[in-house]
Design a protein that fits this description.
With about 375 residues, the chain is an alpha/beta fold. The protein folds into two domains: about 95-305, Rossmann fold; about 310-365. It has 16 helices and seven strands. The chain has helices spanning about 1-15, 20-40, 65-80, 95-105, 110-125, 145-155, 170-175, 180-195, 215-220, 245-260, 270-280, 285-290, 290-295, 310-320, 330-335, 355-360; strands at about 130-140, 165-170, 200-205, 235-245, 300-305, 340, 350. A five-stranded parallel sheet has the order 2-3-4-1-5, with helices on both faces. Strand 3 (about 200-205), helix 9 (about 215-220) and strand 4 form a beta-alpha-beta unit. Helix 4 (about 95-105) runs antiparallel to helix 5 (about 110-125) and helix 8 (about 180-195) packs parallel to helix 9 (about 215-220). It is globular. It starts with a helix and ends in a 6-residue tail after the last helix.
Length: about 375
């Protein structure tokens, strides 16, 4: 086997004039990272932010003869990147998505319903006339990032680590307004390359309200009703925008229901969608000011309600279970009581949500 691959490497060297050196370097780095992360199980997240960890596209192999390409293709698939029947990177487990949203997402009946219907409808309609664009809104810690991960985990074999999934965090990936023109080109190229590489892609934009308006407008054509953009179809892409915008409106509606004695589960999209859309349009920040909003290209605004004490306990229970630890009601109460709640007089809604619970339970371990 070693001799066989040595011959392949020699063959590659013989055909080196067909490649750019940078492409070869990226290919080598990608496979080193793949083996390190998946065979040695190192602590890393391949294929996300480092361009050198991106899987090579077909163009990289264009100069090889058919014989060499066949051998490389077999090696590539032996590493788990593809299979004989379809694209095995994509699982589209709608049943698993429904179960995870129902059992692991607490206090968010609206998000459970809207996200499931939107994803299921999109997956079951291969002739969709535009990409699916969801905008997730609510306080920090209410489950927006969690839902994004659940979607990735059920639509892709490798979840958020899949080469078909890309996460952008606005202040981390695009921190400087003066470089927005540079970011535009990089973002367009990243999206285009992924769409060419994967038949179904997922793009997650966290802290979307901090994106420069010009940056979103630069990729607006990819979310519009176009057959293709420069010869590339983006209709099988999913865009998720995560934002804290609208949190105050959502909380006001939830508080009004509580004061009137109505059940939280009676809150419907008709109570929130119009107000949420209006607040998003009127807010400050690039996300709200972009053509994405004025062009009505967001398919669903998904509200995340503030979490109550009982929901925090459920999150704490899940955090203990994730570590293989048993717990009791008294301990769960202690964890929940350690959180901050608002309004102060009523201690109704958790000000921190569930995000900090995994770290907080360390204080309750023996």
């Amino acid at each position: 086997m070693f001799v066989r691959w040595l011959l392949v490497l020699l063959a590659l060297s013989a055909e080196a004039e067909f490649f750019q050196f940078e492409s070869i370097s990226n290919v080598s780095t990608y496979y080193f990272n793949y083996i390190y992360c998946n065979v040695w199980e190192g602590e890393c997240q391949p294929n996300q932010d480092d361009a050198t960890q991106q899987v090579p596209t077909r163009d990289v192999w264009a100069g090889l003869s058919q014989e060499y390409s066949s051998v490389l293709h077999q090696w590539y698939c032996s590493l788990g990147q593809c299979c004989d029947s379809g694209d095995c990177r994509i699982t589209n487990n709608i049943t698993g998505l429904a179960k995870d949203l129902q059992t692991k997402l607490h206090g968010q009946h609206l998000a459970q319903s809207v996200v499931l219907k939107a994803i299921q409808g999109f997956i079951n309609n291969p002739e969709s006339n535009k990409p699916l664009t969801l905008s997730l809104h609510g306080w920090s810690g209410t489950g927006k990032n969690f839902v994004a991960r659940v979607i990735a985990d059920n639509l892709y074999r490798d979840g958020v680590k899949s080469e078909c999934v890309r996460l952008f965090i606005a202040p981390f990936h695009f921190p400087h307004a003066r470089l927005v023109d540079t970011y535009k080109g990089q973002l367009r190229e990243a999206i285009r390359d992924m769409v060419l590489r994967c038949p179904q892609t997922l793009f997650i934009f966290d802290e979307a309200e901090k994106l420069h308006p010009g940056l979103i407008d630069a990729i607006k054509p990819y979310m519009d009703h176009y057959d293709n953009v420069d010869g590339v179809s983006y209709r099988r892409a999913i865009f998720l925008f995560l934002s804290n915008i609208g949190g105050a409106t959502i909380n006001d509606v939830a508080l009004d229901f509580w004061h009137s004695g109505q059940n939280r589960e009676d809150i419907g999209m008709e109570d929130l969608e119009h107000r949420l859309r209006a607040e998003t349009m009127e807010s400050h920040g690039g996300f709200a000011q972009s053509e994405l909003m004025s062009g009505h290209l967001i398919d669903f605004f998904v509200p995340f309600l503030p979490l109550e004490y009982r929901h925090v306990k459920l999150c704490a229970r899940d955090a203990f279970a994730a570590r293989g630890l048993e717990t009791d009601e008294a301990t769960l109460d202690e964890v929940a009581k350690a959180m901050l709640y608002v309004p102060k007089e009523e201690r109704l809604f958790s000000a921190q949500g569930c995000k900090s619970i995994p770290q907080r339970i360390n204080f309750f371990l023996p």
